[in-house]
């Protein structure tokens, strides 16, 4: 088994999207073991704790953006969420997420690219108005990867209300991530 730190370093080495998809295709089946068991990943539990404080949490539609293998979806379901959809750019990771049984729908797509759906381009289109969008974005790519700018743009355009952005541990004692909870606004 390849050491977890080596896998994490490789995925963070700015691989082109096609290489990154191929990398995740190979890693998907052992990702949870590497990240949770060997690396003390606490982000799924922390983001679920933030999200479940939102009123009517258990009955809201939730989009787990960048859902990967479904670790956040499982934490959301364990904290009472019942309507969870997932979005990730890796079909192999989504196949693992499907095995969790906690997602209603899973979508292939990149948060910062056009998603193959009928109208618009932003990832928030997948969600119905007043639903929550949950995302965990590593601190090292929050600004440089364009995620902060995209969230701010969607908020300025009146598409999202940012409920919470907190910088928390991703892996205990190793690195941090921005944990974002947004609400899709009603369209008038």
Largest sheet: number of strands, sense, barrel closure? 6 strands, mixed
Q: Count up the domains.
A: 1
* Helical run tally: 8
Total number of β-strand segments? 6
What is the C-level CATH assignment? Alpha Beta
Coarse structural class: alpha/beta
Helix content: 25-40%
Rg result:
16 Å
Shape, principal axes of CA atoms: globular
SSE order, one letter for each helix or strand: HHHHEHEHEEHHEE
CATH superfamily: Vaccinia Virus protein VP39
In whole angstroms, the N-to-C terminal distance is 53 Å
CATH architecture: 3-Layer(aba) Sandwich
Strand content: 15-25%
The average pLDDT score comes to: 82
Strand order of the largest sheet: 3-2-1-4-6-5
Low-confidence stretches: 118-122
Pfam families: Methyltransf_25 (PF13649)
Domain Methyltransferase: 62-128
InterPro entries: Methyltransf_25, SAM-dependent_MTases_sf
Protein name: Methyltransferase domain-containing protein
Structure in words:
This protein has 188 residues and is α/β, with parallel strands linked by helices. The chain has one domain (42-184): 3-Layer(aba) Sandwich (Rossmann fold), CATH 3.40.50. Helices cover 36% and strands 23% of the residues. The chain has helices at residues 4-11, 17-27, 31-37, 43-51, 71-78, 91-100, 139-142, 147-156; strands at 61-65, 83-88, 105-108, 132-138, 160-171, 175-184. A 6-stranded mixed sheet has the order 3-2-1-4-6-5, sandwiched between helices. Strand 2 (83-88), helix 6 (91-100) and strand 3 form a beta-alpha-beta unit. Residues 118-122 have low confidence and may be disordered.
């Amino acid at each position: 088994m390849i050491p977890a730190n080596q896998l994490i370093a490789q995925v963070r080495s700015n691989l082109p999207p096609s290489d990154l998809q191929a990398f995740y295709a190979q890693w998907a089946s052992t990702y949870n073991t590497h990240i949770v068991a060997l690396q003390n990943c606490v982000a799924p539990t922390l983001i679920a704790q933030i999200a479940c404080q939102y009123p009517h949490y258990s009955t809201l539609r939730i989009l787990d953006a960048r859902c990967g293998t479904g670790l956040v979806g499982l934490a959301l379901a364990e904290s009472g969420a019942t309507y969870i959809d997932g979005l990730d750019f890796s079909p192999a990771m989504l196949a693992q997420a499907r095995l969790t049984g906690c997602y209603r729908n899973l979508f292939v797509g990149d948060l910062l690219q056009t998603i193959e759906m009928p109208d618009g381009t932003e990832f928030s289109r997948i969600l119905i108005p007043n639903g929550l969008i949950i995302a965990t974005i590593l601190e090292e790519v929050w600004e440089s990867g364009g995620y902060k700018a995209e969230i701010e743009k969607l908020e300025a355009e009146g598409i999202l209300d940012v409920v919470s952005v907190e910088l928390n541990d991703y892996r205990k004692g190793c690195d941090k991530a921005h944990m974002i909870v947004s609400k899709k606004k009603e369209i008038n």
